[in-house]
Amino acid sequence: MKTIDLRSDTVTRPTPGMREAIARAEVGDDVYGEDPTVNELQQRAAALLGKAAAIFVPSGTMANQASIRALTRHGDVVLAGEGAHILRYESGAPAAISGVQVKTIGADGLFDADDVRSAIHPPEHHYAPTTLVALENTHNAAGGRVFPYEQLRRVADVARDRGLRLHLDGARLFNAVIATGIAAAAWAEPFDTVSFCLSKGLGAPAGSLVCASAEIIDRVHRLRKMLGGGMRQAGILAAAGLYALTHHVERLAEDHANARRLADGLQHLGIVVDPPPETNMVFLRVDQATRFAHALRARGLLINPVDATSLRAVTHIDVSADDVDDALARIREALAATR
């Protein structure tokens, strides 16, 4: 029986075309700035996001944390949405690496201009200075939610007006691009730094980019070195990223369609899906999520529980529409066995 893995879009394997691109990659020592494939990827990423420069880093966490460190000082406050990845899933890095506090605002991953206004500390020495607003788009913990574009622009306008800097955790930014038809550069335009992952929906084995001004990227480059992120013949990984940006962006629409197919099937089985999927994530609401996940695993279906009463299923390049139908059949069996 084939294992169907819906735990995350990070579990993908390189496609044959991507493996060929990796094998053919021209490489050099990237710490010296001499890897031509890394340099090409960085130029491509910067152009896609409308920024002056970009830097290739090993992971999304390093991309976010180097950006935060580049934009803040110890003791600052960062405003972020409820359930933000930078706070929930990055091992306390904002405090440990940058010495900043993360203050969450809004609800379900979203917030508006008024939330930002009311959260900014007064310019008085009893208070930690509020200096950075961090948005996540799409938002992982909120079910792959797209941050509404006009709302994002209003948040950015308030932040700029109040002298705050802006970081976009765009780990799955291209899912937002495909879901809305709004170009990556338009999403990125208000932000000082933007990160995006190659190793999630885009299907590359590793790596993320930070895009920003040349001055900020120079600071992030130093921080990458400080955090141990300098790689040598990294063109092998960068080639996979270039292939992904060329071949795997438009196909994200298939993942979104498969997520809707899965959600519809789950609802037919009487399982609550909340929120409705906007991109490639489906949140199942069930009793005893861990027990149900074990029943699914016994049937060759991998879905992660996220709390006591919900599981997150993520569609990706290695999951077809037929796999979704097969997964639904296995969920039906597990429901019968656990009732």
Helix content: 40-55%
Largest sheet: 7 strands, mixed
- The number of distinct helices, counting runs of at least 4 residues, comes to 14
CATH classification, class level of the largest domain: Alpha Beta
Count every beta strand, where a strand is a DSSP E run of 2 or more residues: 13
Strand order of the largest sheet: 2-8-7-6-5-3-4
N→C terminal distance: 24 Å
Order of SSEs = EHHEHEHHEHEHEHHEEHHHEEHEEEH
Structural domain count: 2
Global shape: globular
CATH architecture of the largest domain: 3-Layer(aba) Sandwich
The H-level CATH homologous superfamily of the largest domain, spelled out, is Type I PLP-dependent aspartate aminotransferase-like (Major domain)
Q: Uncertain spans, ≥5 residues at pLDDT below 50?
A: none
CATH topology of the largest domain: Aspartate Aminotransferase, domain 2
